[in-house]
Amino acid sequence: MQAVVEVTGGDVVALSGRMSREEFDRALAAIADYGSDDDVELGPEQLRALLDEEVIIMAGGLEVHDTETGVRVGPGCCAGLESWRDWARLLDEEVPWLGHSPSPGVEFAAGGVRVRPDEERPDSPACHIVDLAGHLERVRQDLAGFLDLVRRWTPYGLGEALAARFDEDFVISAPL
User: Fold this and answer.
1) 36 pLDDT band (50/70/90 cuts)?
2) Residue 174 forms beta bridges with which residues?
3) How far is CA 80 from CA 43, 142, 151, in A?
4) Cα–Cα–Cα angle for 171, 141, 80, nearest 5°?
5) Domains in the chain: boundaries
6) Using CA atoms, how far apart are residues 151 and 166, in angstroms rounded to an integer?
7) What is the CA radius of gyration of the chain?
């Protein structure tokens, strides 16, 4: 399980403190460009505008990859990173909104949770998640590492302010 942001070209970049500078720059540009029709070079105006947003949102969210089956479940539309903590509701056997187009399917199984890429295809391969709490804590740690990179690598002296906004809007530092 990892936090990802969609970047130009339909690719995703995993957010963590282990990102390369190129991955970080692509991710930050994609976050700043979210909702824009123009593909502009990232400058101080775009970053200040991001800080002025009521709530920062981005195309992306949590992606699950089952290493045994190879099945991937990407973040659903409209269930972005701002709601990543909703996955913890699965610990109480509540199914959170995980997006649409397609809508992931969830079933509770002994020892974990199975997540399918499309609830309309219940016989399709699934990702089996055991120790969901541990996975979510690792996501939180990866996001905290991303915040460290935001502080260090965001240009124009805006790193501290942007890291604080990401932390506030994506609820990263608070314990699970």
Assistant:
1) low
2) none
3) 24, 16, 22
4) 45
5) 2-168
6) 11
7) 16
